[in-house]
Amino acid sequence: MEISVCLAAGILLPLRRGAEERVGEDLPKLARYEFFADYPRIPERLFEMRATTSISQKPGQAASNGTGKKNAFSESAAWRDVGAGWQPLFGSFRGVGYSIEWHDFLAKRDFDWAASFHPGCLELCLNLEGTGFVEGRGGRTDFVPGVAGFYYRNNDALKAERKSGERHQFLTVEYARPFLAKHLAGTEATLHPVVRAAVEGKTAESTAGLVTKLTAAQQQIIATLRQPPVYQTAQAVWYQCKALELAVTFFMQPPPEEEFFCTRQQRLAQERVEQVIFLLKQDLAEPPSLEELGRQIGCSHFYLSRIFSNHTGKTITQYLRQMRMERAAELLRSGEYNVTEAAMEVGYSSPSHFSQAFHETFGCCPGLYPLKTPTQQR
Length: 378
Prior knowledge:
35% of the residues lie in helices and 21% in strands. It is an alpha+beta fold. It folds into three domains: 3-62 and 71-251, Jelly Rolls (Sandwich), CATH 2.60.120; 256-313; 329-378, Arc Repressor Mutant, subunit A (Orthogonal Bundle). It has a six-stranded antiparallel beta sheet. Strands 6-11-8-9 form a four-stranded antiparallel beta sheet, with no helix packed on it. It has a three-stranded antiparallel beta sheet with strand order 2-1-3, with no helix packed on it. The protein is globular, with a radius of gyration of 23 Å.
């Protein structure tokens, strides 16, 4: 079968021999177009895949190779409507045994993402924005902003949807069973039952794992995964370490009776810090006062200030300003807000104060953003 790619009228580029086996994975990287609004798109009419043998493939299904056999599973068809909102960052599920992917899109209708789940895959989802669920035999995992959860697809397909009218931002790590079996060997006693079933290649009583709140540190990991702080030659080792770090963090659960007092205190302090961040995010323009935060969380605001600084390295005021600037930058990048409107959205009534804070954060005035500056390129 010959496969060629047409980038524009009259230009037909044949793919190299053997590329047809990878076209399902590589096609989104060659050209992505956006079905959902609000993202730059490549018009669909400028991109066309032509083959001497016609292929009719549903999302998440293996395509026929013309000989009656089926090629390996490909998830690219499941994300076709998302276009550039699906960004594979590193790895290969069938190659190195894990794949790290970033998702950022606005759903104009309920979006079925179950077709992206590889058979024999344990998938971890770090959900920053948007709501959705994954449902299968014996359980259901519900996602809201700021949580992490995992689910296991053995052979039976799962049901999963992302809610319409919402912006969805989440990172997924897809783990193949052989990868987990190799690196988690000897830890079976501490693994969640769903993970243990995946590692052992057995059928789990439930396909859904636990859902936990994302900590500030875990949210920072998402940012570093998108922009790795290492040279390209070191990224294979770095990404594998991060994939294993996330697996150990979310898949291993020592019994509650083994939790030390100091560990419990640290966990409670971390949960309070996360509550502060959650409450601040609800209304960046008019956030609750420090006293109100202490009242809602149930502790002294002096103690709350101290543990917050210890865990984040910033005061609550400094952290609020950082979140405001990040949100303002997001609004400016969208092209739908001017500087004054973005400032008002995040609680600044004075454009000059907003510009000063923005410049200190990003290294340029908001009127020039998003020009690439040394600060933004870090």
